[in-house]
Each structure stands twice: as structure tokens, then as C-alpha cells.
Please model this.
Amino acid sequence: MTIAERLGTVSYRNQGRNDASAHIHVDTDICNSRCPHKGTTYMCPANCYTVDAEGLVHFQVEDCIECGTCMYACDQGAVTWKYPDPEQGLGVTWNLG
Amino acid sequence: MEDKFDCIIVGGGIAGLSAAMVCAQNNLRFLLVERGEFCGAKNVSGGVLWGTELARLVPDYWKAPDAGFERFIRHRRLTFMDEQSAFSLDFKSDHFDQPPYAGITVLRAKFDNWLASKVEAAIEASAFADESFLVPDVLVEELLLESGAVVGIRAGEETFYADCVILAEGVNNLLTRQIGLQPEYVPADYVAVGVKEVIRFDQKVLEDRFQLQDRSGLSNEFVGFASQGVEGGGFLYTNLDTVSVGLVLGMKDLREKGGPKPYDLLDTFKRHPAVADMLRGGESLEYAAHVVSTGDIRALPKEVYADGVLVTGEAAGLLLNSGKAIQGMDYAMHSGILAAEAVAAAKQDEDFSAASLKRYRDALDASYLMQDMRGFQDAVHLLHSPAMFQAVPNLFCDFGRQFFTIDNAPTRKASAMLKDSIRKHSSFLEMMKLGFKARKL
Ligand SMILES: Cc1cc2nc3c(=O)[nH]c(=O)nc-3n(C[C@H](O)[C@H](O)[C@H](O)COP(=O)(O)OP(=O)(O)OC[C@H]3O[C@@H](n4cnc5c(N)ncnc54)[C@H](O)[C@@H]3O)c2cc1C
Ligand code: SF4
Ligand code: SF4
Model:
């Protein structure tokens, strides 16, 4: 099963709303200047952190399933982690959990 | 203050709902705030709720056809695996077949929601039927403090006040960190990440495949190839017409190994012959992931109480992962109950200072929960040792392969086979050291 298929089974809130507010902010300058391991790019269970062909780290919050992993995996201080706002924010609603 | 509650509970997971139930039963005037669309909407577990305490909160719960649990555990299995083989300890007993069941499988979106409905009913029956509330879909952003004591919460523009606040916010405990009971940054050393899938079957197929009677079920834990060299293990639990299958992976080790990704590990685990045979023909309904604590006592918050505040469940780091089971939900339930009892007692004394709320800490210390957490630290550390999640499973499987092979050659003594397997995958010294550690379990 691919990660895209997997995430296809997840119910998200406010999906596709372009005014939805992001609950996680990543200072990718830190990722791309001094992170020795780029841990989040292979630890995020929703593949929100990716590395492009040039080796640069990118972050997108839309697929985030609020697991919390990046809050611990990043020891470089690049991740500012909050819970999404129930009204304005993104995030998940588990059907089974 | 007119609209001041006796208690505000942050989080409608198992810890929060258990606390709420006891608050209602003690006729306290309380508010529970949950950020999910409904209680359970944000929660993930494996999961087996161990112990019988649910029966204390909801007597005879198993008798209701609509009870929020899936199956009770009658059949347990612990499997050691290498790439091709699985060597299991298997235990099935009618001893487990009687209520109050000591282990039930749950799906949190369903279970927590059901438990919340029971709390609603308890509120109805309490002295504050119209003045206690369970409010979903609201995020608590901040704890309000006055002269160092917690006095309420802020959600958006709104503030609510109470004599005390019970934090039941789970492992990603931002509010516990806000008031300094836990450092702002918690290192990867003390947490794991759990990934899982819920896979659906025709109920009859599931019951036949796993030999389930009525509502009986199987819990199966896995070590070894399950996590493919990463510290951790796997699980497979039967629900009514689904199976929960997943991995719990040590976060620091995952980072140090530099990959593979958790969901790729999950795929490989699902393809292992022993697992694939159990999952054949199933349809994946939902993928989920969540951080889970490791039960390392060094990661506990500085304290579980302060002026006007109590910390419960995984927000307080309360969890035991002993390898044969994860106990996070029963710990959440028990600590939630103890915290609410402490609040009820503090209400009697009209004293919500730290000195008064310390009774919660004392009750925790005296409970099975802190005794086990302290007593089983060796097991927690043992699980972190590569010997345990690599050498031992390989050794068992190697031995199993020799022991169960019958070919046209003279059969060797089992002891010789075992010696062989130990030499191949470890050393006698290593095994003696491990045995010495395991002796304390
Ligand atoms: C993959 C996996 C498998 C597991 N398997 C098992 C198992 O088999 N058995 C077992 O016993 N345990 C298991 N656990 C652990 C168990 O799930 C947790 O220990 C348990 O859920 C903790 O309960 P809790 O009530 O403390 O926290 P949670 O269940 O996390 O509940 C916290 C609640 O607080 C809410 N919340 C948080 N912050 C706020 C806020 N600011 N405002 C409003 N609401 C808020 C959340 O939305 C949530 O509903 C597993 C965990 C994982 C991830
Ligand atoms: S670990 Fe932190 S700094 Fe490194 S890539 Fe990930 S977010 Fe960036
Ligand atoms: S919280 Fe989890 S899913 Fe969301 S970005 Fe971080 S690691 Fe990925």
C-alpha cells in the first residue's frame, strides 16, 4: 500500500479550505543549513516532510495526522507545534482510531 | 464567582472521561473540554484496555449489546520472528472467559464516544445535571494562572474558571509544558511512534480464521523481524469484524537508523508470512499513527500536581510497555479516577492548594500503577536492548526451525540445537547477562 493510498483512508477536517490555518510551522532554513540527520523526512508517518532532487527539505501540513512525531524527532528547534484550531484548522477526525 | 466550576477537565480521552465519571458520581460541578469533533475523534491506540476497572465506572457494561468495546481477550500470543519464521508462546484459557473481563479490544473513536455517553448519563443523574458539561470541538489554548496557581482555562476569546483543573491531554501535553511541569522540548529518547491499520473482514470469516466464539478475541504481540532491527515491536488484535495491526517504534532508534519510514516498516511486517496469512483478503479501512510514551520513569513530569492542577494519564507519562502488553489506557483510567477522587476530597476541605492535592500523588504512589512502573523499569530498558529485539527472536526462530524439522537424518538433542542457535545469534555470555536481567522481571 502506498502512503497516498493510506492517507486516502484518513478523514481530514477543513480539507481543501484555502483559508485554513496551519498548526505546525517549520523553519526550513534550519533544515537546509544545519540539520545533520533530517530525521523528520523519514519519520513523519504522513510524509509531510520531503526532500527534493536538490536535497532541500520541504514541509506541507495538509496531510498531517497530528501524531506528534516531529515535535520529538526534530532536535534542531525547527518545529513549532500546536494543535489545530477546531474551526479554522486542519487535522484529523478518526473514524476508528 | 457564580459561574466557577469545581473542576475543569482538559481532554476527553480515557483519563479525562474516567475523571469526569467520578466527578459526576461525587456530585461535583465540572466542565470537560475536548478538542475533537467528539470524544475519541483524535485518539489512537492498539488497543487492548487491560484490567477490570471499566466495570467500576460502568457496571455490567458487557451486558449491553451496544457497549463500546469490540471483543474480550481470551487468547493471547507472543510471537518471536525472524524474516521467515514465527515462534510463539500461545495461551488460551476459559479462565479469561468470565466477566468482568480483564482485557477488551477497543477502537477509540467508538469506545471514547460511548464512554462519553455514559458520562452524560452520570451528569444527568448528578446534583448538577444542568450545570456540568461535556463540550467537544473546543481547544484549550492556555491555562490561566493567578499568583502561580492554576485558576482556569482559555479557549479562543473565552475564559472559564474553576477551583482546579485536571489535565488529561495525552502524551503531547502542551499545557503541562506551559506550566513548567514538563520541559518545553521532550527528547526522542522517551517516546515511540505507533503506526497501525484497521483491516476489515466478513465477521464470519474473521471468527473462523481466529477461532473466536461470540465476543472472544485474540491479542498477539510480536518482537524481532516485526520492527526489522528498529527497537520496538508489533501487535495484532481482533475486533468485532476488523483486525488492528501495527507497530510501535522507538523514536530515537528510528532516527538513528536513518529509515526506513514507519509505514514501509508496517508494510514489510504485514507481508511476513505469519502475519500475511492472518490478514489475507482483508480490506484496509483506516491508517493511523500517534506518539506513545515508552514508560521510562526518567521522562515523567517533574510533578503530577501543583496549586490548582492535577496531571493524569499519558500527559503525566503514565504508561508501561513491558513487551507482552502496552498499558496506557488502564493507567489513564486509574489515574483519572484517582485525580477526581482527590478533587472530591479537596472540595470537602475547600482547599485546592498543592499541599491538599498531594493526596493524588500519594494515591498514585500507593497504586499498582506506580508500583509496576517502578518495578518494571528493568523490563523497559531490556526492551531497548538490541539483544531483546534482535538476537533473542532470531535465536528462538533458529531453534524452532531445528526442533520442528524432521528429515531423513539422525535427530539431535534439543539442548545441542539450542547451543547451536545461541552461538549463531549471540553468545552464552550475552544470554547469561540477559537472563540475569530478565530474572528481575
Ligand atoms: C499505536 C498505539 C498502540 C497502543 N496500544 C495500546 C494498547 O494496546 N493498550 C493500552 O492500554 N494502551 C495502548 N496505547 C497507549 C494508549 O493509547 C494511551 O496511553 C492512552 O490513550 C492515553 O490516554 P489519555 O486519556 O491519557 O490520553 P489520550 O487518549 O491521548 O486523550 C487525550 C485527549 O485530550 C484531548 N486534548 C489534548 N489537548 C487538548 C486541549 N488543549 N484542549 C482540548 N482537548 C485536548 C485530545 O483530543 C484527546 O481526546 C497505544 C498507543 C498507540 C499510539
Ligand atoms: S529534523 Fe528538524 S531540522 Fe531536521 S529536517 Fe526535520 S524539521 Fe528540519
Ligand atoms: S504531527 Fe505527525 S503527521 Fe503531523 S507533520 Fe508531525 S510527524 Fe507528520
Residues 390-438 of chain B form one domain. DSSP finds 15 helices and 19 strands in chain B.
